């Protein structure tokens, strides 16, 4: 059975991640912090949190989040990092032995990491021969010098099984290592699937799993039953530090305006536009307590029953056949602390018609990057929205979908304020605080690199008419909103 989450921490780690905010760390106006010792580790001069040294980890590379279809030597970015596949592909043919959809098919060359992982005690490799190919052998090798030299570990592995089997390899070091699997005979192919790294302490890597929704481009689904938005104790507070709208109400949204309707979904807050059938903007707080993976992605899209009487209720299948994804504003992967948290992100009031390439690559890369910062001792206040009319999906360019009930925006934007974990969040934002602002066209030919679309906060304000980060002093707004940053 496929391991559901690529990073599995012990119960101790999950418990610690749910604790209250750490002791204050002081923003030094350039993204750093002066450190204190907190309940989950220590913060250093960069604002990075060091995990406790006694926490077990299990990290799995399952080769489900990467693509390579040619045998020529190339580097591929996977969930755990960059890997070199030399005379190898990531395949899903009938002959591939695999746990899930994809596995590495290695012919004559090698499979190796381009990064190091620390504090690993044991590495487990699932492997089998490909299809009806003959029996063969391969070697497991480790490097402790960043890939300059490799040492063979154990005996050659005899590949004679047509179904996946697991071999384990001890590292015998607490330092950094990287692995290499080398074929020792030509042309005969083998499959390598889940590679599991187990150890105790900080592995020194961040696993990035794309928050990619299932395709919703054909008329094959029926509407699910609409629902409300229950919440639990893991929801951010209604006010103060960590609250979803700490930095202000960009459009002055209220409970009385259907096209600027303020809706508190507890795990995020939004301004909903009844005429457009989508949010104007969504605002939320993100830190490591929100992404514990206590709940996986639910995909339980549903209409929201909390809209005022007479407001059109967008349904789970309202985007079907449109050529656009049901694009989250607050991502599913930003809310994995409970069933209620993840379910809240699948309400259709959190969705926009988003070009698949825009949603699944450009925005997925940005979302993964922001989540990675929370593993490095930062917390983030995020506002995302869209504006304009007319976007291009896989079926062409449209102004509306769902018989005119849902607007297709021309642009999708996001603003993220990044600060070290601490208390008194508003007071810690200064002229040098890191702010990331991105504005992308809602088209399918967009580049996957989100940094190509970095803009100023002020330019988004000019395009939307909103007053973003309005809770900050005007002098601070003028400083951080007028300089593009990544």
Number of extended strands? 30
Work out the strand percent: 25-35%
Separation of termini?
39 Å
> What's the overall geometry?
globular
Alpha carbon gyration radius: 24 Å
**If you average the pLDDT, what whole number results?**
86
In this structure, how is the largest beta sheet organized?
Answer: 13 strands, antiparallel
User: Which parts are unreliable, with pLDDT below 50 for 5 consecutive residues or more?
Assistant: 1-20, 22-52
Figure out the total of helices.
5
Instruction: Briefly note the structural class of the backbone.
Output: mainly beta
Helix content: under 10%
Topology:
Layout: E1 7-9, H1 11-17, E2 26-27, E3 33-34, E4 37-38, E5 41-43, E6 49-50, E7 56-61, E8 74-77, E9 82-91, E10 103-113, E11 117-118, E12 120-129, E13 136-143, E14 151-152, E15 157-159, E16 165-170, E17 176-183, E18 190-200, E19 261-264, E20 269-273, E21 278-286, E22 325-328, H2 339-344, E23 351-354, H3 356-374, E24 378-387, E25 391-393, E26 396-398, E27 400-401, E28 406-407, E29 411-420, E30 434-441, H4 457-464, H5 474-480
Antiparallel strand pairs: 1-7, 2-3, 4-5, 5-6, 7-18, 8-9, 9-10, 10-17, 10-18, 11-17, 12-16, 12-18, 13-14, 13-15, 13-17, 19-20, 20-21, 21-24, 22-23, 24-29, 25-26, 27-28, 29-30
Architecture overview:
- Helix content is 10%, strand content 33%.
- Strand 27 and strand 28 (406-407) form a beta hairpin.
- The strands form seven sheets. Strands 1, 7, 8, 9, 10, 11, 12, 13, 14, 15, 16, 17 and 18 form a 13-stranded antiparallel β-sheet that branches. A six-stranded antiparallel β-sheet has the order 19-20-21-24-29-30, with helices on both faces.
- The model is unreliable at 1-20 and 22-52 (pLDDT under 50).
- With 486 residues, the protein is mainly beta.
- It is built from five helices and 30 strands.
